[in-house]
Every structure is written in C-alpha cells, then in structure tokens.
Amino acid sequence: MSAIDLAEDVVFRPVCWTTALPATLRRIGVTDLLSPCGLDFESYGTARMMARSAKVGRRIAARVESPDATVSGVMLLECLPVKVVAELDAVGLSLAEVDDDAMDASVGALRQAWCWTHDVWRELSASVAYLVRCVHLIEAPSPDLDCSYSNPDLPFSVFLSVADHGIRGRIERLMEALVHEAVHLQLSLIERRLQLVESEWAGRSAFSPWRRGQRSVRGVLHALQVFVVVQRLWQRAARRAPRGLDGGFAEARVRAIRDEVAGAGELAASPGLSPRGRALARQLQALGSTARVG
Asked: How far is CA 180 from CA 185, 223, 235, 272, in A?
C-alpha cells in the first residue's frame, strides 16, 4: 500500500492499523524533515532538529530498548544544551533536573510503560518504536498532574513528566502519556499526506472538552484521535491486564474518556475540517462515545 493509502486507512479505521503505518510515517518524516537537515533517524536528536543541523552535538543519558523483538526501536533520553533548555523554558516547557538515581527510576518506568503497551496492543507499541526516538523529562506542576508535549517540527521527540516512585498509577499514567504523544506524532505525519483541515479555515475553532473551552479545529481533532486511541488501549487492558497493571485504573479511564468525547460532538460538522477530517471526526465520535468495558 502507498503512504496515502495507509494514511487513508486511519480515516476509516482510526483505531486499527498495522505496523506498516508507523514504518511508512517514519520514512515520510525522514524524507520531508530530516534529510534537508542532513539527518536520518539514527542520527536524529532534538537539539539537532531545533538547530536544523547534523553538526550539533547529541548527549544521550540513557536508552530504552523496544520490548518487541520483531520491531526494533530504541528511545534515547537526550540531555539538551543550556541554550535549548532556555528556549523551551521561554515557551513554558520546564525540563526536569534529575540525578543518576532519578534517571534510573525514570528509565525503569519508561521501560515498564512500553512493555505494558506492547502486551496490550502490539501495533500501538510499534508506533512508539518507529516514531519516538528522543525522550525528554519535564516537570509537572503537582504530583497529581501529568505533563506531556510534542511538536510537529520535532517529528520524533516527546516530552514527558514521570510521577515520583510510590504514587499509585504511576506507570499507567506514564503509559498513557507516552502513547498520547506517539499518536500526536503519528497524526502530524499523516497530515503531511492527507489534508484534514481546510487551509482557508485554519483559524476556525471548536469546543474542546479537554481544554473546557475553544481550541483550533486541528487541535480538537488531534485530541479526539489521541484520546479515542488511548481509550481503546485501556479497553484492551481492562479485559486482559498485564501482570501488575491496575485494571480499575483502565476501566475508569475508558469511562472518563467516553464522557469527554461526548462533549466534542460539534467537531464533525465544522467547516474548518476537510471532508476527510470530518469523516475521521465522525468515526472517532462514534467509537469513543459508545466504548464499554467488560
């Protein structure tokens, strides 16, 4: 199948894809974004991508290997130069300062979160393997809140907070954040081949139940895709939870997301979306608002 055919498949089956999709999307990201900077996936780094130069140094603090022997992948925990840290801080993204013990704990948490994702949904785990190359640890405003971030201009980077050891649901929360940002990266790369938003309506807004206010139609569509995929992950986990995963947490997230999806009902009729974008929104709305556990 071509890249467009695979991307189209997401419109009609937005929570069911093969491992061929993220593999193809990685190639699109490399061709469109990395190659002009002299980079490839192996040499990719967030600092290098921000500078658009392969000559920038890359400092790796730790590595997390893919749990799937058939889908190779390594997440790199990259330490960023002071200048880049300051740039990110200026836009409200505060990187965490971690010592060796905290780094080891975060690596262990990421490894467990990825293993559980693989145990629950192999194809989704492949999206992490193919699309998440660099991970950066960020501060959360409180132990009860998680923060995560990604940017289409940094096609293989994610920023995640990791809750302190001993907090209930710590790995489950990290698992959701990792998947959340991987799906954002996936949809951003799909948009490089499929038009989901009408360019003349790029500033159009719609109600976001996650922001509890207006947001761009693109932002709401992304959120809807991400949360319905996350909901399907928790549905699967609730039915057959890997050893140690909290099934009650999974069931609660399915129900919470179902209620949130119901609040995004106006999106599918928005003129800000292309016909493909509206089709995707309708599919997601139907899937997310009827999800059940048990």
From this structure: 9, 9, 15, 23
Question: Mind listing the pLDDT tens digit for each residue in 85-141?
Answer: 998 988 888 999 888 998 999 999 999 999 999 999 999 999 999 999 999 999 988
Average pLDDT of the chain, as a whole number:
93
Sequence-ordered list of residues with C-beta below 8 angstroms from that of 245, at least 6 positions apart, any chain: 116, 171, 172, 237
* Six token digits for residue 123: 């194809």
Size of the chain in residues? 294
Q: Which residue has the tokens 């290098």?
A: 48
* Burial of 172 (C-beta count, 10 Å sphere; 0-12/13-18/19+): buried
